[in-house]
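Structure ticket #2291
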Amino acid sequence: MNMRLLIVAAALICTANCAIKCVQGTNGTAEATECTGELASATMCSSPKFVEYTGLSTGVEYACGTCAGETKGSTCEECTGNDSTGCNKAADTGADFKCHSYTYDTTSKAFTKDTAMKTCKRLKDTAIKCNMPKASADSTTYTSTSGCGPCSTKTSETHCEACTTDSCNSAIRVAVLFAPLLAVLVHLF
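Resolution: structure written out below.
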């Protein structure tokens, strides 16, 4: 009975006085280490925020303590630390995929496909999604800059089209592009 009390007491003392462990530095897969120095009393760990289809936020390291300044929620995330594992380890990611991006040409009033493809990042359980402008889209109704991810809820169906395989957003539908040309040809004959 006395031995059980000693074990419980030791566990309570350690819980109250043991430093938490956090992943620290730029490598999110590194082993968590004990928080030391002025952060020895920290109760939180922080890490770069993973943004779907974009990847890890830049300029933020894995660390003991809370997010610096106003970065919480935008480029940094926090979690409650413990003395055995790092709660801020890197998230499990899925394989990268590529999507075409489009730029609006104000002279021709149409979107053109950029020559370089964008690399899209995702979490392990996130589906592949690319998007592209429909022929009816303009610079205010289609605002994706990467082509990665689903259409925004504001532009879906009317100005944006999504697809679910790697590099699937290669061109605006050919029939839609040739519809005005066909109308002109029909009126000529």
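Closing remark: The chain has two helices and 13 strands.
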